[in-house]
Structure formats: C-alpha cells, structure tokens
Design brief:
Length: 207
Amino acid sequence: MWLSILVGILTSYLLGNLNGAVCMSALMHDDVRAHGSGNAGLTNFVRNYGAGKALGVVLIDAGKAVLACLVTGLLLAAYGCYAVGAAIGGLCVMLGHTFPALLGFRGGKGILSGLFIALVLDWRVALIILAVFALIYVLTGYVSLGSVIAATVFGIGLAVSYWGNWPVVFCSVAMGALAVFMHRGNISRLLQGTERKTNLFKKGKSE
C-alpha cells in the first residue's frame, strides 16, 4: 500500500508541474510569469493574452487535476481507499501546481485545479464552489475575492462531506488552506482597497 501511495504522490506532483498558463504562453514564445502579477494562473493569463486563448489553460489544469485524483484513487482502490487516494492525489497535484520544481517553484494558486479536484471528490461541493465563485465575482468584479471564498468553501464543504474519513478531511482542509495562503497578497490588497478587478471575458482589467 505504501508503495502505491508513494507512486501516487510522485505522479500527482509531477502532473501538477504541467502548468496550463506556462504551456500556452510558451506556445506563443512567451512566459506569462514575465507579465502582470507574475503568477502562472488563469487570471494573469487572461489579463495578458485574452480569454479567447485561455481554453488550453483550462483544459490542461483541469485535466491534470482529474488525472491525478483518478490515478492515485485507483492505486488505492485495491485497499478500499479510493477516496483517500483521490484526496492525496488532489493535494499533491495542487502542491505541484503551486510549487512546481520543474518551473523554478513559480506556479499558480490552484483555484481552477481545485474546482476539478472537488468535482472528482464530490460533484455537489464542486457545484457549490462554482456557484459561490460566480456570485462573488459578478457582484464585486474581484476574481481574488471569489477565489478566496471558494477555497474556504472547498475546505469546509469536502470536510463536511467526508466527515469521519480523516485522511480525506485533512487533505481537503489542507488544499483549501493552501489556496487561501497563495492569495495572501490579494487579501492584503483587498483590505487596502488596491486590488484590481478583472474582466474574465476579454483582455485587460475592468475599470
């Protein structure tokens, strides 16, 4: 079992290093991290290249998250621990996304990947996360605020859904906390009133 866990951890972390924003900007002979906030995430990608080119980012980051959860889940399914494996895979792919060794440890913040991790673990929680993010974004225009609240809902929602399955609860809370931590700069700017609003449907920020 421990060998299966180790294989799942390593596979998931390496999948996390496959960053959608970095890959898509590289196809344009550029590096998204050299622009804007310097973050290798969907929001910074849209701000600099436009929403029309973001589909590839979504497909890569969503695909790697789902694949990591499924691979590690299936590795542990033989021991009756599919959900535990999926949660471990989710945590490790998110760690690979935020701290990618193959990309100089300069990654994204894990919100998009987190949504699809939640989809694998409990689609009901995923729908709640998506609804909460959409509502906050529409009302405020702040992607970061929607992301922070969605990450909090992620941790709480999956912990409630899997209450009693402590490995899954731990991984879920850890993933939510990691996503919030990665937004610490945004939280500071939100409190100071200097955070930028973002239009996710076209290039550039909202005024």
